[in-house]
Amino acid sequence: MKQEKQEMEPAATGLEHCYKNIEGKKLRLGYTTGSCAAAAAKAAAFMLLTGKDADYVQLTTPGQISLCLKVWNKKRGSDFVSCAIQKDAGDDPDITDGILVYAKVSLKKTEGQPMIVITGGTGVGTVTKPGLEQPVGAPAINQTPRKMITRELEQLCGLYHNQTGLKVEISVPGGEELAEKTFNPKLGIMGGISILGTTGIVEPMSETALLSCIRLEIKQQVSLGRKSLLVTPGNYGQVFLREYFLHCPADIKCSNFVGETIDFAADLGVENLLFVAHIGKFIKVAGGIFQTHSSNADGRMEILTANAVLAGADQPLLRELMQAVTTEEGIRILEDAGYLEKTMEHVMERLWGHLARRSFGRINLGAILFSSELGKRRQGHGELGRTKNAEEILKKILQEVP
Q1: Domains assigned to the chain
Q2: 3-state percent breakdown (helix, strand, coil) of the chain, nearest 5
Q3: pLDDT mean across residues, the chain
Q4: pLDDT, tens digit, 9 for 90 and up, residues 64-77
Q5: Other C-beta atoms within 10 Å of 335: how many?
Q6: Residue range 370-385, pLDDT digits in tens
Q7: CA 304 → CA 237, 284, 334, distances in Å?
Q8: CA-CA distances (angstroms) from residue 52 to 45, 82, 108, 156, 370?
Q9: Partners of 107 in the β-ladder
């Protein structure tokens, strides 16, 4: 009986004193939806197998951090117990922060199946496209949460002499609405959020999750037979494509991670990659900068001005260009002075050269740059220039689009 108490009594420590220093700020760690699902399943299974109550559940994450989590909304039926764990993302701006992840646990009646059967309920997405971690038709509950749930419930079955096994249904009320604000619909995960986590712990403002998602999107496209992909850094590029240029959406959003996106694509067998980007972001790449966040590197006006020098601009114009606050203002200055076209020829040549060097010849890289303000001034799409191979890559992309 002593072991039963240890299983369910509040632990002395959790994440109260777990922090990560990011840019001089002390930020609190949180725990994943996978940890919530495993903890809820463990608490529900304990209550089902013992007939006892549980106000808290203790869980050791794959990252070897021990959590003690409050159990919410307990409900008993004739053959099941369900309960919920509330997600706490710490100081990470996670859209799932505060949601309730439910587990409904019942005795498994069918033999010949795994000891622990895990299914997805309301608010948990279903995989509809190949290339993801789980097969098509499976609930979007990733491998690590599945292992956590299975481990905890198998231990409880052994402790309380259950030989038939358990069935677990994970659900997230409101998950379908939340999923519309995530990558899930684009990845082909429909009807809800994913139950995720590799360490069980959320690290605030981590780049890991975003990089993993970029790689996953590329992998999925490759699994569908695509060898030529279209990439935009963000929303500006997608709006440009939708409104002015192409009728197909971008395959990948790379954010500031241009270099990592190139590496992922090359490693996964992509043959052609075309970036369609706003001048404000990709002028940095023309200077050999492949992580484009402003905290990492800027140099926008310096790079634009250097290429205007090559275009033959005089010193007063160069001085005005260097004093411009934004690249859009710089583009206006160059157009009004008649140097925009020549300057952009040099920009695109430098950009293509840096892309070619960054890929080490493993992948054919091209780019198309645009300006939003130039598009308004010309009442057109605002294209500034394209690398010499952009048209060739574009044709291949359009041929592969379903």
Answers
A1: 2-202 (3.30.2110.10), 208-400 (no CATH)
A2: 40, 25, 35
A3: 87
A4: 889 999 999 999 99
A5: 19
A6: 987 776 666 656 899 9
A7: 20, 9, 10
A8: 10, 13, 20, 13, 64
A9: 166
Q: What is the pLDDT of residue 3?
A: 34
- The residue with greater pLDDT, 85 or 27, is 85
The phi, psi pair for 31, rounded to 5°, reads: -135, 155
The model's pTM: 0.69
Pairing relation of β-strands 126-127 and 100-107? unpaired
Q: Helix, strand or coil for residue 360? A: coil
Q: What are φ and ψ of residue 283, in 5° steps?
A: -60, -25
Residue carrying the six token digits 């019942």: 106
Nearest by Cα to 140 from 199, 202, 193: 193
Can you read off the two tokens belonging to residue 378?
């010309």
Contacts of 363 by beta carbon, 8 Å cutoff, 6+ apart: 262, 265, 266, 270, 271, 272, 273
Using a 10 angstrom Cβ sphere, with 0-12 exposed, 13-18 middle and 19 or more buried, the burial of residue 284 is buried
Lowest mean pLDDT among 139-143, 159-163, 381-385: 381-385
Torsion of CA 286, 292, 298, 301, to 10 degrees: 40
The Cβ of residue 278 has, within 10 Å, a number of other Cβ atoms equal to 23
User: How would you classify residue 393: left for phi > 0, otherwise alpha for psi between -120 and 50, otherwise beta?
Assistant: alpha
pLDDT interval class at 2 (50, 70, 90): very low
CA dihedral 389, 393, 395, 397 (to 10 degrees): -170
6: part of which helix (H) or strand (E)? helix 2-8
Residue 156 token pair: 């409880």
